[in-house]
Give the backbone structure.
Amino acid sequence: MNVSALLTSAGINIGLCMVLLSLYSILRKQPGNVSVYFGRKLVQDHIGRNDPFCFDRLFPSPSWIKKAWMTSEEEIMSVSGMDAVVFLRIIVFSIRIFSIAAVICIFLVLPLNYFGQDMIHKKIPSESLDVFTIANVEAGSKWLWAHCLALYVISCSACIFLYFEYKSISRMRLEYITKSAPNPSHFSILVRSIPWSAEESYSNTVESFFTRYHASSYLSHQMVYRSGTVQKLMNDAEKMYKKFSPFTMTSVVQNRKPCILRCGLCGGTSNSFKKLSNEESRHVEEKPSPARLDLDTSKKECASAIVFFKTRYGAVVASQLLQSSHPMIWVTDLAPGPRNVYWSNLWIPYRQLWIRKIGTLLASIVFMLAFLLPVTFVQGLSQLDKLQQRLPFLKGILKKRFMSQLVTGYLPSVILMLFLYAVPPTMMLFSTIEGPISRSGRKMSACTKVLYFTIWNVFVANVISGTAISQINVISNTKNVPTLLAKAVPRQATFFITYVLTSGWASLSSEVMQLFALLCNLFTRYILRSKEEPMTFTFPYHTEVPKVLLFGLLGFTCSILAPLILPFLLVYFFLGYIVYRNQFLNVYITKYETGGDMWPIMHNTTIFSLVLAQIIALGVFGIKRSPIASGFIIPLVILTLLFNEYCRQRFHPIFKSSYSAQDLIEMDRRDEQSGRMPEIHQQLQSSYCQSTLTHKKGKAEDSNHCTEIDVDRDVENIEPALARVNITSYSDNTVDINYYVQTL
C-alpha cells in the first residue's frame, strides 16, 4: 500500500465521521428523538420535553462537544458510577502515553526509518508505506539505538502512568465501599449445593444449618426458585389452571352471552369472550391458604439460597470459610447486588459448573479457529499481487488506480469489522451458559473472551497472514514466535492503520448516532403508531473495553516499528473521550455497580501489550544484527514484569477480596452507633425478590415479607419488549400476581 491509498482510506473515514457527527448534532435537537439521545435523562433526571420550533434545530452545532469536555469526573461518577469513570481513565491513560510516543517517534524514529537506506525516494503520495517502517532500516545500522531509547521512554512512562492510575482507582474503590450507602449485598451471601433431605425442605435445612453454626450472626434467608424461560411458562400455565379449574367448560358455555369485540389483528368480530359475574370473579380471585402456598413453594425450591447476616463482617467471614468437610456442598459466595443478580443461573446445580466452563472454553476455541477463514480472506484482499494471481479476471478492474486503492486501503478492514460484529453476542451467550451468578460477572466473562478473541484474530492472525494450517504450525514452534512477529508486524502495520480508521473512527461515529435505537424509534412512531417510550440501555463494556485495549496494543507494538499509526490512534482516543462522556451523560443508564472491577483487566492487558512490544523489538533488533540494542531490551522486559508483580501484590487484593476486616468492622460500628442497623435488617427482608413466589424465613421474622416491586424478567438489553411481573405481598401470607406485557 502506498501513501495515496492510505489517504484515500483516511478521506473516506473522515468524510463519513463528519457526516455522521453533523447529522447527530441535528437529530439530537429534534423532539421526536429525545427518547433515543436522552434516554438516561428521561428516566433518571426526569427532564421535560421542549417542543417550540427554532431554526437552530436545523443546523449542526458543537455544543454537545463542549458539554462533554467540560463535565467533571465527579459529575460522571454521580451520574454513571465508578465503572464509567474507570473506563474513561483507560482512555485518558492512552491519550497521555501515546502523546509522548507520538512526539518521540514522529520526530526521532520516523525520519530514521525513512532515510534508513540509500535509495532514491519517490514523491510522497506514490511512496510505499513500508519505507516509513523499521523494515527500511539497514541491518547493522548504528541508528537502531534511537528505537531502543524510544522504547525505553515509552515503557517507563507507561509504567509510571499505570502506577498512579492503579493507586488512584484503588483509593476510589475503597471510598466507594466505605462511604456508600448500606448495600444489601454487604450483608448477604449466596449458598449453593444445599444437601437434599427427605425429612425437611431446603428452606428448613438452611435455617437449621445456619442457626446451629452461625447462631450469633445469622439473620434470615430467602430460597431461590427454579427459573428460566421454560420454567416461567410452566408456572404461568399452572397458576391459570388452578384459578379456572373450578369452572367446567359446559357451565362457561351455557352462561356465555354474546359479546361483540373487534379483533386486533384482522379487524373481525368475536363473541368468544365472557365477563365473569361478581360471584365468579370473587371465586377466581380467592387467595390460597398459607398451607397451600408453603406446599407450592416448597416444590419449586432449588438447592440455592440467599442468606442474610446481622453484620457485614459476619457475611464476609461466612462467604470465605469452607462450610463443610465436603467441598462440593454448602458452597458460599458473596451475593451480588439486588439489581445485579442473574436469577436464571442461581438454580443451576453447582456440580454442573465445571462442565459448563470446559464446554464454553472448547466452544470459544472452535469459534476462534473457525474465524480464521474470514481473516485469511481479508489478508488476501490486502495483498494485491496474490489476489490478481488467484483471481485473474480482476486484473482489469484492479488496474484502475482508485479501485486498487479502495481494495487495498479500505475494503479489508471494513470486511473484518463486519465479521467482528458477530463476536460479542456469541461470547455473551457462551458466558451465560457458563453459569455466572451476577450480570456483571457475565459481562466481565464476555469481555475477557472478546478481548482474547480480538487479540488473536485481529492482531496475531493478521500479522502471521497465512492459512489456518500455517498458524497452527506457528503455535507448535513457539521458539520462532519472536522472529516471526518481528518479520510480520512491520509488514502488516499498514493494515493496522486502516483498521484504526475504519473500526475506530467510524465505530465511534455510529456509536454516537445510535443507529439501531434511532431506527427502532422511527419504526415505533411512524409504523406502529404506538406511544413513545424512553429507550434505555446499559453500557456495553464487553464490546468497548476490548476495542479500546486492542487499539492500545496496536499502539505499543507499532510505535517504534511503524510510527505513522500514532496520529490516527490519538485522534481515535480524543474522539472516544468526547463520545463516551456524552453517552454516559445522556444515553446509558447504570443498573448495577461493580466498583471498578474492570480495572485489573485493563492493567494486565496493558502490561501484556508492553511486554509483547518489547519481545517484538527484541526479535527485530536480532534480525537487524544489533546485539547492543537487543541486550538492552532484556532488562526492560524483566523490569516490566517486576513492576506488574509489585502492582499485583500492592493493589490487586483490593479488587479481589473487596473488603478488609478493619473497614467492615468500622462500618458495622458506625451503623450500630447511629441506630440504623435495625432499619437495615428490615430492608434486607425485601431487598431480593425473584420473579416467582419469594419465601423468606429466619430468626428475625417467620413470614413472607416482600414489598410491592416491579421486576424485569431476565432481560437486560432488550428494553422495548419487556415482560414484567407485579408482585404484591399481603400480611396474611398471600400473593397476587398480575402480568402485563409491554410490547414494541
